[in-house]
Request: fold
Amino acid sequence: MRITNVTNNNLELNAKMSEHIASKKFRLLMLAVAVIILICGLIVLSLDIFSSDEDGIDLFMPIMCLIGVSVFGFIGAAFPKLIRYGLKKTMQGKESVNAYTFTDTGYSVSSELNDGTTSEARGLYTGLTQVREYNDMWLLYINKATVFIVDKFGMGDGSVEELSQLLKLNLNERYKIYYKVK
Reply:
């Protein structure tokens, strides 16, 4: 069996990958931090209001908490745009076309950057630490820092279902599905 895929590794694809990996968790974390800071600010303000102090109300901590809520809320809300901005700066036109070939025994990747530089990599499925399937892509983890992005819309020889089956067969419990299967 031989399955091929050609993936345009560009800003859009990397932004989608980043959203799959971190967006939901990060946004929930930012929201949770903002809520905790808001609660702390309200507690400090209410303690200051109800204390029998003659100096008046000290608004410094409640104002700082409000600023913290605003900052964390903004980061959580603008996360996809911040990721896109960071990727644009990081990639700086270093987009590539990756040609993947999957066989029964392993895989190979041939990459060509837009400046003409090429590279090739081969590996066995046993070398992959994990494969995550999303509705629009697979992420093949070599380790925690190195990930191959395989776009489902780039299928050549073979189908999405055939590649999913091949990866499941070779990776067993290291193959994870991260979307609702219909």
Summary: The first strand starts at residue 2 and ends at 9. DSSP finds four helices and eight strands in the chain. The helical segments are 11-50, 60-77, 79-91, 160-171. The mean pLDDT is 89.
